[in-house]
Amino acid sequence: MTATKRTAGRSANTRKTSAKVVENLFFSRDESWMRFNQRVLEEAQDETNPLLERVKFLAITASNLDEFVEIRVAGFLQRIEDGYNLAQPPDEGGLTPQERLDGLMERIHQFVAAQYQCWNDQLLPAMQAEKIRVLRWSQLSDTARKQALSFYDNEVDPLLTPVTIDPSHPFPRVLNKALCIGLLLRHKRRGLKAPTALGVVTVPRALPRLVPLPGAGGNYDFILLHELVESQVERMFRGYEVLSRSAFRVTRNSNLYMQEEESRSVLESVRAELHNRRKGDAVRMEIESSATEEIIERLRINFELDPEQVFRTDGPVNLSRLMNLYSEVKRPLLKYPAFVAKEFKLSTKSIDIFDELRKHDVMLHHPFDSYKTVEEFIEAGAQDPNVISMKQTLYRTSKDSPIFKALTEAGQSKEVTVVVELMARFDEDSNIRWARELEDAGVGVFHGIFGLKTHCKLSLLIRRDPDGVVRRYAHLGTGNYNPVTARFYTDISLLTSKPELTGEVQKVFNYLTAETESDSYKPLLVAPLTLADGLVSLIEREAAHAKAGRPACIIAKMNGLLDRRTVEALYAASKAGVEIDLIIRGMCSLRPGVKGLSERIRVRSIVGRFLEHSRIFSFENGGKEEVFCGSADWMPRNLMERCEVVFPITQPELHKRLREEILAAYLADNTKARLLQPDGDYVRAPKTGTPFSSQNYLMRVAEGADDKLPDAAKIEKTAAH
């Protein structure tokens, strides 16, 4: 089946519209993000998913929304406060930032209502049926109350500091996203005519938000920490009558506003800005829906919030902490079946990984292929006396990472250079700590180019091989050097000793440590130097092939597509006759299926057990297919504000695996895939034929099953018509 015929049937499932009736050819970034989080919420609502996985998906939506509010909503508020409130051009929506914010806040309120409806109407009853209960204080048995009070007296009460707000006791500093209890108080000795006072208790983050209780008959019983604290507030505020009480949580602006200063190192600048961020302006308050209007108003005024920035929650004020249920409840049948990644094995004639890489490249598809191979590659560099030097980028890693330990050990005896990205959002504290530990171990630590995040995933080992030749060995990846997330993020790793790749990787490191630019990095595409133009050139090349009647097809998988120039190039390619399939997990500003503009473009999003994180770009190229992988999404920040690397996969069997196993599986998915419509809605892929899940298929293949892809998934050369 040709790709033209293959895609014709799929296009029929996309509602088409005309370019003439579409006012805006680009979806709003923020609206697109909200639709992505809605797809995650749908997984929590989906009864075909295991119950505790559904709870986990709900917690993920809350964590996602936290970051969105801290960064995007805060950014709108900052711009408006700074006086930047001009309307956008008509082709960008024609709205002012205030109008965009108003619409966005309305959408967030609707989303929050859907989250709590899922929790109260779906998940809580389903958990109760499985003997997993989250109880109120009034529902506890005597035995459970006794244990809860023991935990409170020994673990909680010593950490609490009750504050009554008055001229001598100003409102306490409330940290970003900290759980707090607000109380309306009246002094008993002063009688009913005494004015009411506001009390506040901040609950330390070190305490678990779900307190386990003794459960009879195999029950897993819990009480929310704020319920336990609220039940004991009379003990903290003796002499006061507690008129009402409610848990609340404040989200603050978490943007870093860096300015280059000659007198400071980047590390010190980031550290100073982190301190400022903790004191950022409040941008949202979540508070229990049972709270009295007086408490809400007093808190709202104190935090200088508008009414629409207050969110009344019909349940826990921090749904992201429900993630603890997943780890606390030991019920394997309520979770996804265990999966063990495929271990890489050396060829029988290879004595070590270096010997193997001199013969051929190794490509890994995580988490289906074990990440241990990447760890062992870097550990081999640290332990092998023939390895002379090591170079490494670190964007996010994990606590007790084998990679971090290997680099620290190597610093004792080798020349080791590490480029640590300090401004990896919300990992700044840990990255500062790791940078200092590496420096203490003798590692040369750099922070890339000021103003550019170092987001590329590169490792380079220089080794004097047994034949006396000094060779380079490299790892290039699409994901972070984080063994924890590697277990549930899908990513591509390439291990190679090809000089045409490893030599260019060294040039990238020179750029990061000395800002020395090369005339060319081919065959690599490097942002912000060559990637943006290179991608557009590849898309335009497909358009030229289509116009000439040669095979022309683009299949691109990424996390987000927002770059205006790239989208316009895709529109032009579609009009030229190029068939385009985009697999985009999150934000997408491109509007597919518009007659006369994008009718040959299809966009799908896959949200499932694993977080789709790999970036794979395939170009038919007139029958001489080229496939690339890399660290960059097609977004302005990746193309212009970060150092990114996109690399080709040229070895025939690896090229074939990317096209005919991995990409083909994602295009065949009719279980977890949603198709983007011209109006911005996402609809489930039609379940024609046998249900097919790409992630389940890839797991079975990794486990050795001889599963076949559906016929419709086969990718073949396409001649444009």
What is the CATH C level class of the largest domain, in words?
Alpha Beta
Largest sheet: 10 strands, mixed
Assigned CATH architecture of the largest domain: 2-Layer Sandwich
As for the CATH topology of the largest domain, it is Endonuclease, Chain A
Count of discrete structural domains = 3
How helical, in percent, are the residues? 25-40%
Give me the number of helical elements.
Answer: 20
What share of the residues does DSSP label as strand, in percent? Answer: 15-25%
Q: How many beta strands in the DSSP annotation?
A: 29
Query: Whole-number radius of gyration?
Result: 28 Å
Please state the average pLDDT score.
89
Structure description:
With 721 residues, the protein is of the alpha/beta class. The protein folds into three domains: 217 residues, Endonuclease, Chain A; 188 residues, polyphosphate kinase like; 158 residues, Endonuclease, Chain A, CATH 3.30.870. It is built from 20 helices and 29 strands. The strands form five sheets. Strands 15, 19, 20, 21, 23, 25, 26, 27, 28 and 29 form a ten-stranded mixed beta sheet that branches. β20, α17 and β21 form a beta-alpha-beta unit. α2 runs antiparallel to α3 and α2 packs parallel to α4. The N terminus and C terminus are likely disordered.
Primary descriptors:
globular, eight-stranded mixed β-sheet, 721 residues, polyphosphate kinase like, Endonuclease, Chain A, single chain, ten-stranded mixed β-sheet, disordered C terminus, alpha/beta, 3 domains, 20 helices
